[in-house]
Write a structure and sequence with these properties.
Elements: E1 2-10, H1 14-25, E2 30-34, H2 41-46, H3 48-62, H4 64-70, H5 82-106, E3 109-113, E4 116-120, E5 123-126, E6 130-139, E7 143-145, E8 158-160, E9 173-177, H6 181-192, E10 196-200, H7 212-224, E11 228-230, E12 235-239, E13 246-250, E14 255-258, E15 260-263, E16 267-269, E17 302-304, H8 315-330, E18 344-346, E19 352-356, H9 359-365, E20 369-375, H10 380-385, E21 391-397, E22 403-409, H11 413-425, H12 430-435, H13 446-458
Parallel strand pairs: 1-2, 1-6, 2-3, 6-17, 8-15, 9-10, 9-15, 10-11
Antiparallel strand pairs: 4-5, 5-6, 7-16, 12-13, 13-14, 18-19, 19-22, 20-21, 21-22
């Protein structure tokens, strides 16, 4: 027997749930298939929510904030166990999963648990023998960590970026292989917990997609927190004996011994077992599904969203893609594009966030700009919370002072960025911030003072740092 639905959603992570709920809100009959026993995917169960919760727990239990504010060590680290660190992570993940399940119940989304694979372009088999037929299909199966062959992941002290959250004993030393976003975030978290962290990468700098000034700020802070950077090196061999340290051999011939190893080598789409060929789909590199701007695949009634279609591969963007895909699929007059400007949040210590252009991208495009900065140390709220190194950086078009990019590093950066994001979405800039009254004392007030600096630069009253000095500049 085959059950008929308006849409079958494959994958129960943030993107899949959002797509299913969107169709359900508009009265469509929806089936959601999740391979695991519980919904949530990497976003709720093994990645986004748990890792960020662990970061906050590390900040609290390590006493970092208290040492900055009061000059005394209020750390619980001496008595805390790994179980203490992980307890809050589990609580938050369970709460978010239950909230999502309740949403699905309200919107009459039928959940099926088991491995999914295509039988034909409209029919999905849920193992072992359930058949679901959908007028539309949404693939949102997410991604999994890449596991390079040189690492013995069966060893209890060699971890991928999903397994690391189940670590049993807090190591004294940790080697993190890969200095991308995930590797950098975990390096910061474990360093905050007192672990001696070594971060290895074949590149020569951290997070190169960020504005260079911001990435330099993060790298300095990580170094000050005790993270050791090993640049321009690749791991060629990993020796993990039954007892004792794991030893990494690097491309230079040097070796590094650590209690545990975390491999953050990127992620691959979870499409290998979907039998895409019978649906008429051909996956690309690392299993990616090719889609157009509406998240429609080469088969018109099949859509895909989230990590399974590639960058930016963020939970927030995946959810927006899935909502838009369902609106397009059924002609709902609600959302037919994904926002043209997307924020990026980096949960290092300090955290950072950005939206729009960087100085480097504007120079490549030949666009004349002006920069305004405001530092947390000059803001009373920044002083209250003890953040001496935080920075808000605004990049405006010199001609009309529209905001082109917003970059933040410091406490609450991933929240603060949204003010600038909304300004860019409304095509606004310096004039808006100049007119707006912000609460005092708040970090939001940084926007006012960064704007003032940019206006003074545009008028030639202080030096412009964009490389193009206006006439009459005072140096």
């Amino acid at each position: 027997m085959t059950e008929d639905f308006d849409v079958v959603v494959i994958g129960g992570g943030p993107a899949g749930i959002s797509g299913a709920n969107t169709a359900g809100i508009f009265g469509k009959r929806v089936a959601l298939v999740e391979k695991l026993r519980e919904v949530g995917g990497a976003g709720i169960n093994t990645g986004t929510i748990p890792s960020k919760t662990l970061r906050e727990t590390a900040l609290a239990l390590s006493g970092i904030r208290s040492r900055k504010l009061f000059g005394v060590d209020l750390s619980l680290r001496r008595e805390a166990t790994v179980r203490d660190f992980m307890r809050h992570k589990t609580t938050v993940a369970v709460h978010e999963r239950r909230r999502r399940e309740e949403q699905m119940r309200i919107y009459n989304v039928a959940a099926f648990h088991g491995a999914a694979s295509f039988v034909d372009p409209n029919t999905v088999r849920v193992a072992p023998d359930t058949l679901l037929r959908g007028e539309r299909i949404l693939i949102a199966t997410g991604s999994s960590p890449v596991r390079p062959a040189e690492f013995p992941f069966e060893h209890p002290r060699v971890h991928d970026t999903d397994e690391i959250l189940e670590i049993g004993v807090l190591p004294k030393t940790l080697a993190v292989v890969g200095a991308g976003v995930i590797g950098a975030e975990y390096a910061c978290t474990f360093a905050a917990l007192g672990v001696d962290v070594h971060l290895i990468d074949g590149r020569d700098s951290l997070l190169g997609f960020l504005d260079h000034e911001i990435s330099e700020n993060i790298e300095r802070a990580m170094g000050a927190a005790g993270v050791h950077f090993i640049w321009k090196e690749k791991v060629t061999r990993c020796d993990a004996p039954p007892t004792g340290d794991v030893t990494l051999t690097l491309s230079s011939g040097a070796t590094l011994a650590a209690n545990d190893v975390l491999v953050a080598a990127g992620r691959k789409s979870n499409t290998a077992d979907l039998n895409l060929a019978v649906a008429g789909l051909t996956p690309g590199k690392r299993g990616l599904i090719k889609v157009d701007t509406h998240c429609r695949s080469e088969v018109p009634h099949i859509f895909a969203a989230g990590d399974v279609i590639g960058p930016p591969a963020l939970a927030a963007t995946g959810m927006e893609q899935a909502r838009m895909a369902m609106c397009v699929a059924f002609g709902f007059d609600y959302k037919n594009v994904v926002a043209p400007i997307l924020p990026t949040g980096i949960y290092t210590i300090p955290e950072a966030s950005m939206a729009g252009e960087t100085e480097e991208s504007l120079k490549e495009k030949g666009i004349v700009y002006v920069v305004g900065r405001a530092r947390y140390m000059d803001n009373p709220r920044g002083q209250i919370i003890g953040d001496e190194n935080g920075l808000l950086k605004l990049i405006f078009s010199r001609d009309d002072m529209r905001l082109l990019g917003v970059h933040v590093v410091g406490e609450q950066a991933t929240e603060l960025v949204h003010i600038g994001l909304l300004a860019m979405m409304s095509n606004s800039g310096a004039e808006l911030f100049n007119r707006t009254c912000f609460n005092y004392p708040t970090l939001g007030d940084l926007y006012k003072y960064a704007t003032y600096e940019a206006i003074l630069k545009q008028k030639g009253l202080i030096v412009d740092d964009s490389g193009q000095l206006p006439t009459g500049t005072v140096s």
